[in-house]
Design a protein that fits this description.
Blueprint lengths: L2 E5 L13 E8 L2 E2 L1 E4 L2 E4 L10 E7 L1 E7 L3 E5 L2 E5 L2 E2 L4 E4 L4 E2 L5 E2 L3 E7 L8 E2 L4 E3 L9 E11 L1 E5 L11 E5 L8
Parallel strand pairs: 7-17
Antiparallel strand pairs: 1-6, 2-3, 2-6, 4-5, 7-11, 8-9, 10-13, 12-16, 14-15, 14-17, 18-19
């Protein structure tokens, strides 16, 4: 799955790049001239090869998707209350320009239902379904990089019924969401 390009110009100490790929070799007349330099590459042909075509071979970068259960903190009557998740979801490894399937959620949170994975913990990023095939997503371009997808939760709804105990009520029930304040009538 390597990509190969031939550069038809003088390239010495090149900054040439291909997003999501790392140089695996640079050759002139089948002689390698690639030198790794702290994660970057330097092409160093001899003076006699200076004006020859340089064939650069690229390999796709590997990356990891990490998954967070994403604790929820709410403010109820001035108190911050955090609902923590339990369980785990293993990280998944991927290759740039390859088909991606996100993990199936292994987290649980009392009072909540898993909704989706998201690139931002507040749910404002890019969303992905549970165990979804998302195609060639290319979520990370750097070699051996990573991204975290956060579990986005929806509060469960439930009903509370009020007993007037012989009195009168404006309303005899109320629909509530987990971790929300209760309005009494």
């Amino acid at each position: 799955n390597n990509k190969t390009i031939t550069v038809k110009e003088n390239i010495v100490n090149s900054g040439l790049g291909l997003t999501g790929y790392t140089v695996s070799d640079a050759k002139i007349d089948n002689t390698s001239y690639y030198v790794s330099n702290g994660g970057k590459y330097v092409i160093t042909p001899s003076k006699t090869d200076y004006k020859k075509d340089i064939k650069i071979e690229w390999k796709p970068n590997n990356y990891t998707i990490k998954y967070s259960g994403n604790d929820t903190t709410v403010n109820i009557y001035g108190d911050s209350i955090t609902t923590k998740y339990t369980g785990s979801t293993a990280s998944t490894n991927h290759t740039y320009d390859k088909f991606v399937t996100v993990a199936t959620n292994g987290f649980e949170k009392e009072g909540y239902v898993f909704k989706e994975w998201n690139t931002k913990s507040d749910g404002t990023g890019t969303s992905y379904g549970n165990g979804a095939d998302i195609g060639i997503a290319n979520l990370v371009t750097t070699p051996n990089g990573s991204i975290t997808l956060y579990a986005i939760w929806e509060a469960k709804s439930y009903y509370i019924y009020f007993d007037s105990n012989g009195g009168s009520l404006v309303k005899d029930y109320d629909e509530l969401e987990f971790d929300k304040t209760l309005n009494c009538y």
